[in-house]
Amino acid sequence: MSYEKISERPSTLADILVSRAAEQPGRVGYTFIDGRGEREAEDYALLLDRVVGLAAGLQEVSAPGDRILLLCPPSLDMIHAFLACLLTRRIAVPLYVPTSQRHSETVAAITRDSGAVAVVAPQSVASVARDLLGWPDEKIIDSTAAERGNSLQLLDTPVPAADDVAYLQYTSGSTGSPKGVVVRHRNLIHNLECQRRALGHNESTSAVHWLPPSHDMGMILGILSPLFVGYPVTLMSPLTFLRHPLIWLREISENTNTTAGGPNLAYGICAERVSRAEAEQLDLSQWDIAFVGAEPVNPIILRTFADKFAGSGFRPESFSPGYGLAEATLYVSGGPSGSGLRTCSFASEELEKGFVVEKPNGRELVDYGPVRAGTAAMIDPRTLRRSGPGRVGEIWLSGESVTAGYWNKPEESERTFSAQIENESGTPYLRTGDLGFMVDGHLFICGRLKEVMIINGRNLFPQDIEWTIESTHAELRRGGCAALSIEIDGEERLVVLQEVEEELADDMAALEESIKSAVSREHGVSLYRVIFVGKGKVLKTTSGKIRRSHLRHLYANEFESRAL
Length: 564
Known about the structure:
Oligomer: single chain
CATH topology of the largest domain: Rossmann fold
Number of domains: 3
Radius of gyration: 24 Å
CATH architecture of the largest domain: 3-Layer(aba) Sandwich
Helix content: 25-40%
Number of strands: 25
Structural class: alpha/beta
CATH class of the largest domain: Alpha Beta
């Protein structure tokens, strides 16, 4: 069986999929490990067969440009569904299968916002689609029962163009008013090429990923980059990783030239749950790129991981912190393979004022490397002028990776994606909402514009408070601290949520007093309250960002007791 190339110079992932099946039909592209440890592998020819078969089914219920919900658990099914949409010029909307009332409300809101006309889901999830969306069976395409297609002639739509919309990436934490980032094919190709060059990926690379495909990092770095470059990837669900992180590490151990990673929590979970004896059975010397995608990257967690697995051959220089966001497709900056974890310390009191001053034993910030996907400018958010050297500013981005805006939100898209620098003309910029600065051409991030807390007239970064607390007390859970500004009796008060182990329950009064003293000493502000909570109560997005607005709501409704 053979396939003809769509074009000599691929301009979309649909082109690349067809080319891979034609040129390397027997090469395994994807392997998925389920919760029982069973594997299913697909070479490129079989992959295209299944994608074409599902694409033929999509044509029966939709038209080019229609939005299609992908309500598949992490699996090869999700890959087939996503690529079938690309191949037929349908707009994919990758989602997660809801497991709670809040998740169900989010899926329903995204369905309304996107105007989706059909859903691809396995039979095990079809009832969820019927009950949640109220859709008839003819709008629900079974992702597991599509006929295998043995010819691209089954498809009767024109091939996708670079300017076509590939998919909508709904941002983490979307609820009542979800925002779907419009990602075009050209955005994807540009961003994937920037990643390839920066990370040095080639066909001898291998990868092991567990990140959810409904998230931008899980979809692009976990699924699309392997197809784009042509290297094999082993995938598993986030639940498999969370229950058995050793499975992830064993897969990394059994591969060579491996890329794998995730947010801070991935490294924290492995350091906490994998025993020394288990670690000694691993060989992590071939883990070339241990990417870390989080804002902020927590160097304490990474050093703990590196120490735990040093005897397994893990090399700290494998760490590759990166910065990105869905509005810029994914990847913005990061160090090359082998750059390792690089940090620098800055004076917190000066950062609060917008000045960048290095200071020994100050606030440690991670070096995110050069901006490699486009151009960055640091802008004063009050004047909209360039901040200048040695000043903190909002990170603005321009370039081909910057996406086309938010779906059906023209006013918000104009504000966010078409910003203009004062006294300059021409180039539109994406406002990221992240605050940072450049040192010797490398990007440092110090917080989120909307998260800056004003306490007693001072601008405070919550990450500064969290860093002080975690650095002071080794017995506290790493990455389990959230500093919040909460209005109490008409005044903004500083409240900290801190995860602790139950065995510390008898020492909480002394621990609270010690934390308050450290924050007062280092930052000159008073902590209104420290609330100790159990493991996992400091809620985060799938990319590791603290869900501060949701935690504020929980504070008012659920955290009135000091008990765990």
